[in-house]
Amino acid sequence: MLFILLTSMSLLPLINYVVADDDKPSYCGINEGDNYIWKTEFDKDPLEDYYEDLGYSEAQAENLTNIIWGLDEDLEGWRIYILQIKDEKDFDYKNDEIDYVPYLYNLYETEDWEEKDWDREEHNERGIIPEYDDDLYLANTYWHMGLFKWFVDPKTDWDELADNLEEEFEDYNEEGDADDEERIYFFMEEECGISTEWETKETSKTEEFESESRYTREGVLLYYEFSYDGDTIIKIELEGAYFYENWWWILLISIIAIVGIVIAVTVVIIVKRKRKVEKIAPPEVSKKPKVPAQHPVESPTDVKFCPMCGKQTKVGTLFCTGCGASLD
Questions:
Q1: SS3 186
Q2: Which 3 state secondary structure label does DSSP give 2?
């Protein structure tokens, strides 16, 4: 079952965009010539743990896992090259007419992520991107694995899909939960995928299956993880995913850092220039306070002095007021 799901997936774009084809429908976010690279991680051991938790022996658990497991655990990367976007077609699903776009692609694989030594595994393979339909997308969202598609309609209503899966859990009396995934762009939230949790009711010894799917604005698989009891079974991440989801934070921090550096440099330059001007300016010469010129004191003409004691008396006085001597 897992192998069928994997081979039926449609892969997604972020690297090497080309000019969009105006003739293709808006629900097709890929273009001819697009090249997409994913880093992959596969481990079937958690599935074997699940079967053992169900009560199977180790050998039985290994055999059951091998029946549904069709992935090479040595693989470290996938690369998809879009050869052709074909004309829009349609099919009937639950009495509804669903439009879809077929496309042709080449699939490459590598066991060495660092070297990127690609081997072509599939040539001229066919995939489809269906327009969003609540029933169709719900049917392709599994309780344990969630939604595992390479390409989806960019206008997928993730909140509606999560609500529909929640209702399905309730209808079947299942222990499950579903939420729409969101990311932040310039302090605004936008829906970008779906996450699920599900635990089988067959035995209380089993643990939860969890999945998380996130897509780009063009409907390309950005990140997918499928795990059991916290251990990863499948992990797929589009090359450049971190920058795609965090570029505006990086840009904002970079701008703040640059502005801070510019301000700091400007302050340093201003301070240095001010000090330089102070050093060049001539020193101020201190001025001595002016002392008024001294003039000889002259005796007033209307006074005279006593010849005996020298006391000053007015002219016309007959006797000294100090000693009583005659002033004639």
A1: coil
A2: helix
**Using 50, 70 and 90 to split pLDDT, how confident is the model at 282?**
low
- Contacts of residues 86-95 at CB distance under 8 Å and 24 or more positions apart, as own/partner, are 88/24, 88/25, 93/133, 93/135, 93/136, 94/135, 94/136
Task: Output the DSSP codes for 232-293.
Answer: EEEEEEETTHHHHHHHHHHHHHHHHHHHHHHHHHHHHHHHHHHHHHHHHSPPPPPPPPPPPP
158: three-class secondary structure by DSSP: helix
What is the distance between the alpha carbons of residues 224 and 181, in angstroms, rounded to a whole number? 12
Q: Which of 240, 243, 218, 239 is nearest to 80 (CA)?
A: 239
The pLDDT assigned to 9 comes to: 42
Say which amino acid occupies 130: P
Long-range Cβ contact pairs of 201-204 (< 8 A, separation 24 or more): 201/173, 201/174, 201/175, 202/54, 203/53, 203/54, 203/55
CA–CA distance from 49 to each of 16, 66, 75, 91, 146 (Å)? 40, 13, 22, 40, 20
Concatenated DSSP letters of 212-233 = EEEE-TTSBEEEEEEEETTEEE
User: What is the tens place of the pLDDT at every residue in 107-144?
Assistant: 999 999 999 999 999 999 999 999 999 999 999 999 99
CA distance 64 to 44: 11
- Give, as one character, the DSSP assignment of residue 16: S
Interaxial angle between packed helices 58-68 and 45-53, expressed in degrees from 0 to 180 and rounded to the nearest 10 = 130
| C-alpha triplet 301, 303, 308: angle, nearest 5° | 130
Instruction: Give me the pLDDT at residue 285, please.
Output: 57
Where does residue 162 rank: exposed (0-12), middle (13-18), buried (19+ CB within 10 A)? buried
Q: Are strands 96-110 and 221-228 parallel, antiparallel or unpaired?
A: unpaired
State the DSSP string of 52-113: HHTT--HHHHHHHHHHH----TT--EEEEEEEEE---EEEEETTEEEEEEEEEEEEEEES-T
